[in-house]
Design goal:
single chain; alpha+beta; five-stranded antiparallel β-sheet; 30% helix
Length: 250
């Protein structure tokens, strides 16, 4: 089915520089989004290195991967990014301690492979219903999972952005993956916490349900996050699985 891709990123209203990065490659069926962290400009370096490395790895190896191995491919790509960021931080003192979250989606045939580390998310909108397909690697999410914090309070607690996993922190990295079956009409959203901290799932669903091109939806999401405060950098990537056009009658 036809795939429509769009992405954008914005510095937000409070941060002096943008540490989010996003890459889409419609030909590969790939979207990668990263939210960097670290000292002065180091977070920006980490997120860009991550997106670039994942993109290059998928581009260079996808044709050799048999169907059904897309999760392994994304996992290897993120491991490659982890090694590259970790090594760069060792070689450049100004980059010491830099790291990044990442979420990557690869569409191949009827399959959508997803891989992520940290609290950048992937949502699916199907027939008006929004579902989060990733599970945050944060201290807050661990407390919610353990029953120590009500889910309703997770959005307002002061430590909601403390991630428990990040790309580039150490040579070893645990990366979560999933494989989904896509349907015509699905819309998938990759986003950094600069979006999902500012907007509720209901607000995100409302904007995704608008009958507009993915680029317009992406810009509307960023505008809404800024209108809600824009407390952080904002990055989004939208993938829409357009239905095949009906054949014209003769």
């Amino acid at each position: 089915m036809p795939l429509l891709f769009a992405c954008t990123t914005d510095v937000g209203r409070l941060r002096p520089n943008n540490e989010d990065a996003v890459v889409v490659d419609a030909e590969l069926g790939l979207a990668v989004l990263a939210d960097g962290m670290g000292g002065y400009q180091a977070g920006e370096v980490a997120s860009r290195l991550c997106c670039r490395t994942v993109h290059e790895h998928v581009r260079d190896t996808l044709s050799a991967i048999p169907p059904g191995e897309e999760e392994s491919l994304l996992r290897a790509a993120i491991q490659a990014a982890n090694a590259r960021i970790y090594t760069d931080a060792l070689l450049h003192p100004a980059h010491h301690g830099m790291a990044t979250t990442v979420v990557a989606a690869l569409v191949r045939g009827q399959r959508l492979a997803v891989a992520h580390v940290g609290d950048s998310r992937l949502y699916r909108l199907r027939q008006g219903q929004l579902v989060q397909l990733t599970h945050d690697h944060t201290l807050v999410q661990e407390h919610v999972d353990a029953g120590l914090l009500p889910a309703a309070e997770a959005r307002i607690t002061g430590y909601r952005n403390l991630v428990t996993r990040a790309v580039g922190i150490s040579p070893a990295l645990a990366c979560d993956t999933t494989l989904q079956t896509i349907e015509a009409g699905d819309t998938y959203l990759l986003c950094s916490d600069g979006l999902h901290d500012m907007l509720t799932d209901g607000e995100i669903a409302h904007l995704l349900c608008r009958q507009a091109a993915p680029a317009q939806v992406a810009e509307a999401l960023v505008a809404a996050a800024n209108a809600a405060g824009g407390h952080d950098n904002i990055a989004v990537a939208v993938i829409h699985c357009a239905p095949d056009p009906a054949p014209r009658s003769l």
